[in-house]
């Protein structure tokens, strides 16, 4: 058990941005919101999975919608607790713990806003170990935990509680409500008992994000290589260091898709890497051969600063290093690959293991 | 006949251009009192060329005054921020992410910043977020008036999509606060991203009084030199704004320095695609031009600790300039520099400090000061130190290039005498008038228009939407004073919003054209 103070969220947000694999939204506004909430209400307690009682009621708190929208229409700050209370009313029980649905990006910060306001502790773990775009792409789904009942709240105070026949339906209905509510909402869902967390969550990912953010910050401060610091912390493989020489985006089937071509520099001169992305970086081909795929993490970092490069921020001329980082092994089971393997995202390839170091 | 002027922290450079020909150029020290230095620079180029002041058709000035005022937290006006967006955004009020020192600088005499959260604003598709509450705005205005604040920044959620809420609020605030209050509206300042756009708008409002003074000083300098031609200021993207716009949008000048020197380099070399190395007294700034415009940096520009979403040129700075201190034994050059005191400290000027400029003179690359004073330097050591400079500059250029294809390099700036060649780059040029490239960049600037907002792109309508955005950008350039027929679209970027099905796409189009001097009176009438 430990307390999180506002300053620590700087490192956590930096690390969460890297674990967002190009998506998940810029944690900046979420971090400011969480810091304001902690300043107003006091520090947030973070507990390890082992410390959660077996009969605890653990609720995942997250944001849904377009991150670009939340950077413009900044949340009211009340959405998370509004959603949580609506879920509690529907269940007739009170939550005892909160947890992030994904450690990657903006959603790493969102539970801290509700935790500061309610005094509930946050569990050190998450349901993905990275960022994914859809509500059903969560590890608790593999052990039978359902996303619904799911409560959705907007900035105006509207709430909606969904009871659905499958996680896929929860995603579909919540997504369309989200668009109607202004493309930026908060969700309370994926209710778990304390004794389900070991099998349902990736443990200690908040600690990982904070240590990752600190490693990058400290490397920068002493003019060491921040990308090497990140790779070391994550056990990641450097796939290429180079420059973005072409970015192509298109919309197909209602989703934004794109490819970026990178030309190697320094030790990688002469090599190329083609990056396929949707909301996150999902596939990497080096010199024409697939070498990394979702659900493994493909992290694109600014070579000089170690800052994550998002799919929306990919631009001609950026100097980047691409890291492949192994995902939680449960994602590589048949059920995990059905949810978030390359074929789900429309790529005609199976998952391939990352190359050796 | 145009005069271009770059007012930097150390030097004021001026050039007189007749079409494509540089008739005269001058480099003189910047004076603390603005008018005198600029008048002297104008008089010098007129005298050098023998041109009458009445023959000048336009004067373009690039200035660092406004960005320096923010960096030094000096001469900022007390400023209120009114945001329309409740119930959204309540948790993060305006200026929440500012350094305390700057927040205090725009709130003098106030116990806390004058910020007002009000209803109004829009959703991503332009529909109403919440109805504007006129009574709420009148109460805010009364409080602003009671605090004696005369500059107000107004921001509304999604104002880049629809400016209606900001415009209506501005009407109400102007009616309550009287005609001499200054209102900065965020949709005229920045792009999507509320906090950084709002930050830039507050900075703009805080600089407004200074802008009036500086513009008056510049127009006074022109009058002092007998010039009746109109004055323009350079903006971040290398385009121009007229005096009236400059008075109300000073924040748009923030990154004009590097932009002007790169555009000047393109003009002098005749290259639209090249790397530019601008060597000053203390640093060398390396950038890349594509299509005649600087490549822009990714991410948000942080200025004096304030996040803004301006697009600024992607520049890598290296601590090597004409005034850099040299250790011949290592050899090492920079990052410490004698800076503006080159003419007293360098060996060739009779000083006691070995500088990079001394190396260039010793190697016979430049005739500056007294070459006899560096004749004693060991030739091999001088050559080795100059090689060291070339290698480090070449590394920096290499980091900026985006392909292995050969890329020409243009060296400009007073310190570019250090460069004769760069290893790995076959084509390195130092064009005539390289020392005043920034003033040239100001003189040749064009007029631009931009569109940057979220468009709904239904299936099969992409081409039509892009055409609509292009036409809007071209019309904006023409409204800003570009000659119809000369306006070309120079940049199109479309980014579908992530995690959002349905084709909402952020489209950015930039168009530029030649300044139409014949339409100036008409433009002024249109504004009056």
From TrEMBL, chain A:
Domain S-Me-THD-like C-terminal positions: 166-354
InterPro entries in the cross-refs: S-Me-THD-like_C, S-Me-THD_C_sf, S-Me-THD_N, S-Me-THD_N_sf
Domain S-Me-THD N-terminal residues, every copy: 8-163
Protein's name according to its UniProt entry: DUF917 domain-containing protein
Species of origin: Actinomadura namibiensis
């Amino acid at each position: 058990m430990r307390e999180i103070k506002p300053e620590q969220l700087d490192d956590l947000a930096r690390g969460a941005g890297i674990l967002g694999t190009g998506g998940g939204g810029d944690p900046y506004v979420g971090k400011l919101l969480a810091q304001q909430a902690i300043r107003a209400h006091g520090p947030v307690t973070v507990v390890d999975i082992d410390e959660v009682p077996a009969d605890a009621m653990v609720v995942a708190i997250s944001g849904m919608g377009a991150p670009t929208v939340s950077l413009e229409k900044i949340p009211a700050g009340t959405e998370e607790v509004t959603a949580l209370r609506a879920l509690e009313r529907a269940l007739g029980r009170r939550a005892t713990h909160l947890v992030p649905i994904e450690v990657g990006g903006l959603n790493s910060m969102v539970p801290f806003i509700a935790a500061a306001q309610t005094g509930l502790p946050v569990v050190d773990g998450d349901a993905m170990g990275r960022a994914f775009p859809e509500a059903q792409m969560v590890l608790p789904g593999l052990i039978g935990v359902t996303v619904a009942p799911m409560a959705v709240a907007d900035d105006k105070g509207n709430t909606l509680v969904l009871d659905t026949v499958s996680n896929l339906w929860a995603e579909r209905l919540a997504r369309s409500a989200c668009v109607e509510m202004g493309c930026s909402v908060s969700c309370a869902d994926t209710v778990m008992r304390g004794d389900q967390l070991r099998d349902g969550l990736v443990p200690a990912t908040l600690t990982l994000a904070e240590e990752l953010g600190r490693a990058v910050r400290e490397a920068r401060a002493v003019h060491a290589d921040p990308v090497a610091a990140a790779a070391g912390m994550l056990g990641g493989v450097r796939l290429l260091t180079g420059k973005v020489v072409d970015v192509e985006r298109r919309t197909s089937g209602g989703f934004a898709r794109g490819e970026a071509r990178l030309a190697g520099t320094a030790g990688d001169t002469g090599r190329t890497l083609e990056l396929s992305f949707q909301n996150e970086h999902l596939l990497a081909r080096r010199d024409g051969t697939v070498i990394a795929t979702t659900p493994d993490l493909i992290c694109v970092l600014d070579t000089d600063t170690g800052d994550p490069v998002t799919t929306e921020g990919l631009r001609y001329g950026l100097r980047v290093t691409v890291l492949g980082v192994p995902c939680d092994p449960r994602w590589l089971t048949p059920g995990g690959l059905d949810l978030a393997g390359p074929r789900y995202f429309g790529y005609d390839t199976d998952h391939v293991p990352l190359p050796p170091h | 006949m145009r005069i271009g002027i770059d007012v930097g922290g150390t030097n004021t450079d001026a050039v007189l251009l007749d079409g494509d020909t540089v008739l005269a150029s001058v480099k003189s020290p910047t004076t603390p009192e603005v008018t005198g230095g600029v008048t002297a620079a104008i008089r010098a180029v007129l005298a050098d060329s023998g041109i009458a002041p009445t023959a000048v058709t336009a004067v373009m000035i690039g200035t660092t005054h406004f960005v320096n005022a923010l960096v030094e937290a000096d001469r900022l006006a007390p400023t209120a921020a009114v945001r329309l967006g409740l119930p959204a955004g309540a948790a993060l009020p305006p200026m929440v992410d500012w350094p305390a020192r700057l927040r205090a600088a725009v709130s003098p005499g106030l116990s806390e910043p004058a910020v007002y959260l009000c209803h109004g604003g829009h959703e991503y598709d332009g529909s109403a977020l919440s109805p504007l509450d006129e009574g709420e705005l009148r109460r805010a205005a009364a409080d602003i008036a009671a605090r004696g604040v005369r500059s107000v920044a107004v921001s509304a959620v999604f104002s880049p999509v629809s400016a209606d809420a900001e415009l209506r609020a501005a009407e109400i605030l102007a009616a309550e606060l009287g005609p001499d209050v200054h209102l900065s509206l965020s949709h005229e300042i920045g792009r999507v991203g509320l906090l950084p756009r709002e930050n830039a708008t507050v900075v703009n409002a805080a600089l407004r009084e200074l802008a009036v003074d500086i513009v008056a000083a510049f127009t006074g300098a022109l009058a002092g030199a007998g010039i009746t031609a109109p004055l323009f200021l350079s903006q971040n993207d290398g385009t121009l704004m007229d005096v009236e716009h400059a008075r109300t949008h000073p924040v748009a000048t923030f990154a004009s320095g590097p932009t002007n020197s790169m555009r000047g380099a393109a003009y002098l070399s005749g290259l639209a695609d090249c790397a530019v190395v601008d060597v000053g007294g203390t640093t060398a700034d390396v950038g890349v031009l594509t299509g005649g415009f600087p490549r822009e940096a990714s991410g948000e520009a942080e200025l004096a600790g304030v996040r803004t979403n301006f697009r600024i040129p992607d520049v890598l700075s290296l601590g090597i300039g004409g005034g850099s201190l040299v250790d011949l034994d290592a050899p090492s050059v920079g990052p410490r520099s004698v800076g503006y005191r080159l003419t007293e400290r360098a060996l060739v000027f009779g000083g006691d400090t070995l500088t990079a400029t001394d190396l260039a003179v010793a190697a016979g690359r430049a005739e500056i000061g007294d070459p006899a004073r560096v004749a004693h330097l060991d030739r091999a050591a001088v050559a080795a130190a100059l090689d060291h400079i070339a290698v480090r500059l070449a590394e920096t250029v290499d980091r900026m290039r985006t392909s292995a294809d050969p890329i020409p390099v243009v060296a400009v700036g007073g310190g570019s005498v250090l460069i004769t060649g760069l290893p790995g780059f076959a084509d390195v040029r130092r064009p005539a008038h390289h020392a005043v490239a920034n003033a040239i960049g100001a003189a040749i600037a064009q007029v631009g228009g931009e569109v940057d907002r979220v468009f709904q792109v239904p299936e099969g309508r992409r081409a039509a939407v892009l055409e609509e955005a292009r036409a809007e950008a071209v019309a904006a350039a023409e409204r800003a004073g570009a000659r119809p027929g000369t306006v070309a679209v120079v940049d199109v970027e479309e980014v579908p919003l992530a995690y959002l099905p349905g084709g909402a796409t952020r489209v950015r189009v930039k168009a530029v054209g030649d300044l139409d001097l014949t339409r100036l009176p008409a433009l002024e009438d249109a504004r009056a």
